[in-house]
Amino acid sequence: MAGVSPSQQSWWPEAASSWSAAERELLARLRPDRLPAHVAVIMDGNGRWARQRGLLDRIRGHEAGIDSVREITTSAAQLRLRALTLYAFSKENWRRPAREINALMALLTRFLVAERPELMGNNIRLQTIGVPADLPADARAALDETRRLTAGNSGLILNLALSYGGRDEIVRAAAALARAARDGRLDPDRIGEAEFAAALDTAGLPEPDLLVRTSGENRVSNFLLWQIAYAEIYVTPVLWPDFRRAQLLEALIDYQRRERRYGMVAEPAH
Ligand code: IPE
Ligand code: IPE
Ligand code: MG
User: Fold this and answer.
1) pLDDT of res. 260
2) Which residues are designated catalytic?
3) What residues form DSSP beta bridges with 89?
4) Predicted structure pTM score
């Protein structure tokens, strides 16, 4: 509607023409040259979302959270971000009740199959970090097939953290480097930060510029411990199933207000 939503700007995704007026207002506040390359998200609050709605089963919250995963992934691709890492299941989450774990694995499997057209249509490549070998066979099979199918896509990398723990990843990287040194394939004196980063699950990805945590908890919960060294952290009280395109745009606007210094000073020193 003229006068309500700002007119289309040249860098806007084509899809924005069908976004709501409020979403387009938010989009108009973004600077295309200062978008983060990599956004990482701790998707938290599904259980609380269900409880707040009087639903007795936490699993209803996980089901609702899938809609957020779809909308955030597609929006990130449309905004031409390079990578989106979603913390879907932690190493520690295996300690939840078996019924909840089974429901989460079933949801993951269903998502990986059902979303193939959406991933292909948006040129999204699926990758994973963590230990997918821990997952049940049907989830692993769906994962392998979706990864294979999307391997040639050149747009957003959707990086799912599955059976992921930051400490576990660091230990596995250290062990891999130690094995390489033992076998004479690597000189320990040549191990620097770049060599270490290349041994992590995230090898080849840019470091996250923005780390989002939903549902208001001010903690990292063993997520990307090495990689978030200089990430901007954005904690929102919004519960994951309520975190949609508008909330992503708000997080990106907040990110663009930050000044990243990387230990240096804002002005050149005299
Ligand atoms: C996040 O929601 C989803 C996963 C950890 C898989 P939670 O299930 O942790 O929801 P809360 O934190 O109990 O509300
Ligand atoms: C972090 O959420 C893990 C995922 C989002 C997969 P949790 O709900 O498991 O983390 P804590 O228990 O609040 O630290
Ligand atoms: Mg939680």
Assistant:
1) 83
2) 44, 93
3) 162
4) 0.96
Reported as a single tens digit per residue, the pLDDT across 167-203 is 999 999 999 999 999 999 999 999 999 999 999 999 9
Interval 63-87: pLDDT, tens: 999 999 999 999 999 999 999 999 9
Q: Is 240 in the pocket of ligand 2 (CB under 6 A)?
A: no
Is the Cβ atom of 8 under 6 angstroms away from ligand 2?
A: no
What separation in Å is there between the alpha carbon of 15 and the centre of ligand 1? 30
Task: Read off the pLDDT of residues 137-165 as tens digits, 9 standing for 90 and up.
Answer: 999 999 999 999 999 999 999 999 999 99
Domain 35-164+208-238+247-257 has CATH 3.30.1130.10: no
Rounded mean pLDDT, 251-270: 87
